[in-house]
């Protein structure tokens, strides 16, 4: 069912510093910051040859990553995003297998303009998993 | 400097269960477990089209991931591995930039038979980073 690893998301308190680490220290290609108000994050994309790292900073008081960053002030790996061909079919298969889909179980339009769902980390080895319809 | 994301490592207490989650629930191609005594882990490779997920279980009392799994009994994302062309050049550049290289700073032969180094998570947004000479 799952296809490519679309991205690894790292949540940070200071996006400018994190972007500088990837651009200058690790010598990667890093995009300009993009504020995505409806998702409560400002994001920078680290473009690797085979996938992306997304550096996320909380934006606004209702940011879904505010709690994570408060608990991990130095930052931390927040989630992994796998691509699927058909997100509704994937959801139904996962639910039938007993996996918990977060929220109301309906796909939302994610930061890339595509339907996404999040899966409970306790069902996936402690890793928060995002599925994105590719 | 950094190239491909070689793998994401997830450390777990129960490798058979984690492998079954990826094979059966997420429908991925999963290898048979491989015990790597000199690295203190048993590993299963989840082969995605563009990269790998490595599921790691502690092996032996001196396993370098035993403490992590004790702290995260449900499992958790342990590290990210980026490929570099020249690991000694990468190390020297990183050290000059003030990043901390773990251990004695000399590359070891990693689980794939290639030279690797680990970088301090506090210098990389809370993420433990492995560099592997590709």
From TrEMBL, chains A, B:
One MF annotation (Gene Ontology) recorded for this entry: methylmalonyl-CoA epimerase activity
InterPro entries: Glyas_Bleomycin-R_OHBP_Dase, MeMalonyl-CoA_epimerase, MMCE/EMCE_epimerase, VOC_core
A single GO BP: L-methylmalonyl-CoA metabolic process
Keyword terms of this UniProt record: Cobalt, Isomerase, Metal-binding
Organism domain of life: Bacteria
Top-level enzyme category: isomerase
This enzyme's EC code(s): 5.1.99.1
CDD domains: MMCE
PROSITE patterns reported for this sequence: VOC
One Pfam family cited in the UniProt record for this chain: Glyoxalase_4
Keyword Isomerase tagged: yes
Domain VOC: 4-134
Cleaved signal peptide residues: none
Catalytic reaction(s) noted: (R)-methylmalonyl-CoA = (S)-methylmalonyl-CoA
Protein family membership: Belongs to the methylmalonyl-CoA epimerase family.
Protein name, as recorded: methylmalonyl-CoA epimerase
Organism annotation: Methylosinus trichosporium (strain ATCC 35070 / NCIMB 11131 / UNIQEM 75 / OB3b)
